[in-house]
Write a structure and sequence with these properties.
7 domains, 27 helices, seven-stranded parallel beta sheet, six-stranded parallel beta sheet, DNA-binding, 33 strands, zinc ion binding, GIY-YIG endonuclease, 3'-5' DNA helicase activity, 34% helix
DNA sequence: AGCACGCCGACT
DNA sequence: GTCGGCGTGCTC
């Protein structure tokens, strides 16, 4: 081999190097590219690279492996660009990604997609522009009308994206027209890369070096400016803020230009000063996060908390994971803070996971007070730029501690010492769609294992999975059974809806007991929470004459009536339509709303308590970034007497003045066709009840039910979690439910009912042949039989949770799905695998 | 998942 | 004849 000048190249150095790149595509392997010479000294695992994929697409990938084995069956394309000078992802993470892909039966690229903030993935957008070498004079080719339109637009706009072309022509895709234009060489197509992360920049000014190092120069300057008071004032203002005469070095940092311009000085004079070289202007990349001080937590633990802390540490001597079962209000947060501080002092990193809706609340405020800007906050409502900054902050060591939602498990930690998962039982830790369908709790335990770090699971109502593991001695178990301070556990009351109805005491679906307790609270200027886990006004509308129900055109569900906006909405696909005025089936005008959502409850309460100030908190009132926070602040400030809400109000709110919690329809939680409904009901009712009476006053919890004698209510009333667990486990044992077995759910989706069904059936037959002990249920029509015009069938596989059954089964499952994908009849069927569905 | 290529029906 | 539909196969 020879170089450009004909000199022979040393053989050893000319061995080409290849990179296996993880790309964000649902294909279960990496792609091998050639590493250009100049990248060789720098490149390594975890670097971001730009590659061409297929004929047109330009993608960002992550280097997963470097090697020297040239691919046999194809020519490797070269890497186009190296984006970083240090890895953005560490080898431990790559291992972690592979584990997730393996465990949750998805592709590594899908894991990468979930892991990287989108601001770190460069986009390729195909664009076109006029071909500058093309002369539009007596062309050889006829130009079609639509082509002319595009050319005209290009004339004025300069460039267009493919998407824009489609819009202009009102076509789904303008591809063929563009293709024809390209063939005629009238336009050029190119890919433009966009770096999406934009650092926040501040314009700053500082004195020119001359005036700093030489005092006499500054004096001379003042003398010269005597006739220009405006300019003099600016310099004085600057010196006031940046006293360079005390310390010359501080001039280098300068001063935020905004600070000067906003203080009412003349912008023109400042401009003159800069022009004359007295000031110089420069830019600085600044953090989006405020600079906050840290204040070591001074709160002392109660003896009971102290004891729990010691037990946790003791358990860590033998166990990697400890479950902290602490009743609501027992002060788990204080324990967390102590532990986080200790681990940080030892130099390791800490990750605290919170469910999404708990993150904007008091918990973060409290943690911020203690850890200041050493703590990173990773929230899904944060902008992408903010998320990229947290990512970089973790790499740079600026954030030794991160509080975040589910996806924070993907941050580039390199030496975790502790992962805390608060509200461990929360189902929002499981990602449903799209793949990877991972559970943050379970993946975090794996992550901790990779880091040899500890895990603390915290909950007042642990998931059966975790409690089971604790009882099996896989995890340590520490219990905290006393509320912190003087707070007492609330009193529970069952309110019998049917009994009240018989005696004519039910008013607007509200029992007498609930009304009395609310009134009492209002009289004492105390606050009330009303919980109903259903948003909207009413779950459906019904024709009184022929019992017709309005359903979604695209899904198998009834449309929910939303009073706000006077419309019917589908909660599954977002479909909206006007409220019908008459029944389309029989023409009757007797359409009535049935059931009650938060909107209707809000309205009912307004009629029952006209003097009360009522607010509502659900998905519809908290969509905006600060909607949630504003509502909470309002409530916290005492501007609201009664807050009606969905699940959102059950999490982590700590308002001392709430003394009454009402659960409008507890049965709805219980009679859900799922083996976990009991567990869920127990958790939700206990959680929301925990909002009552968190200070001196004892709270009251009113549970409205049609079946107040149901044994589950007895368990909740007595607060005996262990007893409840043992009862429920009997049933789980009998019917082979988790946590005693491992579940895998496979969903088949297709626009034809029959195809979806037969595909699932066919799959079941193939799966039956897999040589492990298992039970396969189904195919059964999905709980919602059709969503977004796709019919849904489900298979449920129960596997022996210990031993080799799960990995063997998953291995075979992969092959079976490949086989099925090759079968013509099921080509267009989508199979969705959900490991450990919740 | 996209995206190119190829085969076939509906229209000028 | 051609436009544009969708099924099929590939991506280093």
């Amino acid at each position: 081999m020879e170089d450009l000048f004909g000199n022979p190249i040393d053989d050893k150095t000319s061995i080409p190097i290849f990179a296996d790149v993880i790309l964000p595509v649902p294909i279960p392997w990496m792609f091998t590219y050639m590493v250009p010479r100049e990248m060789e000294p720098i490149i390594g695992i975890g670097f971001r690279v730009i590659v061409q994929f297929g004929t047109r697409k330009i993608l960002t990938g992550i280097v997963g492996k470097i090697h020297q084995k040239p691919p046999k069956e194809y020519d490797a394309k070269p890497l186009l660009e190296l984006l970083d000078n240090q890895p953005m992802v560490n080898p431990l993470q790559i291992k972690f990604w592979h584990w997730i892909a393996d465990y949750y039966c998805c592709h590594i690229g899908e894991v990468m997609n979930a892991a990287l903030p989108s601001g770190m993935k460069l986009n390729s957008e195909s664009r076109l522009q006029l071909n500058p070498t093309f002369q539009d004079s007596g062309s050889d080719y006829p130009i079609d009308e639509r082509e002319k339109i595009i050319l005209d637009h290009l004339e004025t706009e300069g460039e267009l994206t493919f998407e824009a072309c489609g819009k202009i022509l009102e076509l789904k895709s303008a591809h063929h027209i563009i293709k024809s234009l390209v063939a005629k060489e009238m336009v050029l197509v190119y890919e433009q890369l966009k770096e999406k992360f934009t650092p926040k920049i501040e314009n700053r000014i500082r004195l020119s070096a001359l005036f700093v190092s030489d005092k006499s120069a500054l004096e001379a300057l003042f003398a010269k400016l005597e006739s220009k008071p405006k300019q003099e004032e600016i310099i004085l203002k600057y010196l006031q803020q940046v006293p360079v005469y005390k310390d010359e070095k501080i001039n280098h940092e300068g001063l935020d230009k905004k600070l000067l311009t906003e203080s009412g000085i003349s912008v023109n004079s400042l401009r003159t000063l800069i022009k004359n070289g007295i000031f110089e202007e420069f830019t600085k990349i600044i953090s989006r996060f405020e600079n906050l001080p840290t204040n070591p937590d001074t709160l002392s633990l109660s003896p009971v908390q102290e004891e729990a802390l010691n037990q946790i540490k003791e358990a860590y001597k033998e166990k990697q994971t400890v479950l902290l079962h602490g009743i609501t209000g027992s002060g788990k947060t204080s324990l967390y803070i102590k532990l986080v501080q200790e681990v940080m002092d030892s130099g390791s990193q800490v990750l605290l996971l919170l469910p999404e809706i708990a993150l904007t609340t008091q918990m973060v405020n409290r943690l911020t007070k203690v850890f200041g800007n050493k703590m990173g906050v990773f929230h899904s409502k944060y902008s992408d730029n903010e998320r990229v900054e947290v990512w970089q902050g973790v790499i740079q060591g600026r954030f030794q501690f991160v509080v975040g939602v589910r996806s924070a498990v993907f941050l580039p930690f390199d030496s975790l010492g502790l992962i805390i998962i608060d509200e461990e039982h929360e189902t929002s830790y499981k990602q449903h769609d799209p793949a990877p369908r991972y559970h943050a709790r379970d993946t975090a335990i794996m992550l901790a294992y990779l880091h040899q770090s500890k895990v603390l699971l915290g909950s007042a109502t642990p998931s059966f999975e975790s409690y089971y593991n604790a009882r099996q001695k896989k995890y340590g178990l520490v219990e905290l059974n006393l509320r912190y301070g003087e707070a007492q556990l609330p009193h529970f009351h069952m309110a019998d809806i049917l009994a009240d109805k018989k005696k004519n005491l039910l008013k607007l679906d509200t029992t007498r007991l609930l009304r009395e307790k609310i009134q009492e609270a209002l009289n004492n200027q105390e606050q009330v929470l009303i919980f109903q886990n259903r948003r909207g006004y009413a779950p459906y509308i019904n024709c009184e004459d022929c019992s017709w129900v309005l359903e979604c055109d695209h899904c198998d569900v009834s449309l929910t009536y939303h009073q706000f906006g006077e419309e019917m909405r589908c909660h599954y696909c977002g479909f909206k339509q006007k409220v019908p005025t008459s029944c389309p089936a029989c023409g009757s005008n007797n359409l009535v709303t049935v059931g009650q959502g938060t909107e209707k409850i809000e309205e009912n309460l307004a009629m029952l308590f006209p003097e009360a100030r009522i607010a509502r908190m659900d998905l519809d009132t908290t969509r905006s970034k600060y909607g949630y926070q504003n509502l909470l602040e309002n409530f916290s400030a005492g501007n609201v007497d009664i807050l009606v809400g969905t699940q959102m109000i059950t999490k982590g709110l700590d308002f001392g003045n709430v003394t009454v919690v009402g659960i409008v329809d507890a049965d709805r939680l219980l009679y859900f066709p799922d083996f976990r409904s009991g567990e869920r009901a127990f958790q939700q009712i206990t959680q929301v009840a925990g909002r009552a009476g968190r200070r001196q006053k004892t709270g009251n919890v009113i549970i409205q039910s049609r079946k107040p004698d149901h044994p589950i209510y007895q368990s909740i009333l007595s607060g005996d979690y262990r007893n409840f667990y043992l009862q429920e486990m009997g049933e789980r044992q009998q019917f082979f439910y988790p946590p005693l077995v491992k579940n895998i759910k496979i969903t088949s989706k297709h626009k034809e009912f029959k195809t979806a069904e037969t595909a699932a059936l066919h799959l079941k037959n193939l799966l039956q042949a897999i040589p492990v002990k298992k039970i396969i249920l189904g195919p059964e029509k999905g709980l919602i039989g059709k969503i977004k015009n796709q019919y849904i069938f489900e298979l449920l596989i129960k596997l022996d949770k210990n031993g080799q059954a799960p990995p063997i089964f998953k291995e075979h499952l992969k092959l079976v799905l490949e086989e099925l994908a090759a079968a013509k009849a099921f080509k267009s069927v989508r199979f969705i695998i959900d490991v450990d569905p919740v």
